[in-house]
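Cross-check.
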Amino acid sequence: MKKITCLFFCVCLLAIANITTAQSGNVLILKDRGVTVKSFTKDNYIEFEFSNRQWITGQIQWIKNDSFQVKQYTLQTMMTQYGTYGQDTLRLGTLTLHINEIRAFAKDKNRYQSVFTNGSFLKVGGVLYSGLNITNSIINKEAVFSSENIPSIAGGFVAYMIGKWMAKKNPPYRPIGKRFSVEII
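Predicted model, tokenized:
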């Protein structure tokens, strides 16, 4: 009798194991070349660029196989009745989206981006260097575009262009495409 009960119990366990399926579609994952950078679940705060280039911030209501719903809200700085500044929450309603409608994710708020990595230093330095050479040529009553001054002006222009290139390569967001990808697991 014990053998029959044990066999019946094992058959029931196998049947239940075949019927039940794993839970799917509950985690939205941002990947950097296949490596998980950030994951989002229900009730997490999310900030991303929608397909119409509008930035959306809010709280995730639910995540399914290929879509998710965001309860939109935005934080606005406002002046209080005491003359100090405070945060005011503006609720905008819910929005249901497909994961292919995400263009980019915002980088973390506390992440520091230096003037050297975003190209600002080279852009400002290049303009100032070229301007200084032109100003000195005018003050000294020399030809601005003489053969001695053109390499200095061109050097400032090249520094400015390298700064623009660096700004393009290091944007303040994570664009979905070659490097970054999104999927729901």
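The longest strand covers residues 85-98. The CA atoms of residues 48 and 105 lie 4 Å apart. Passed to J.P. for a second look.
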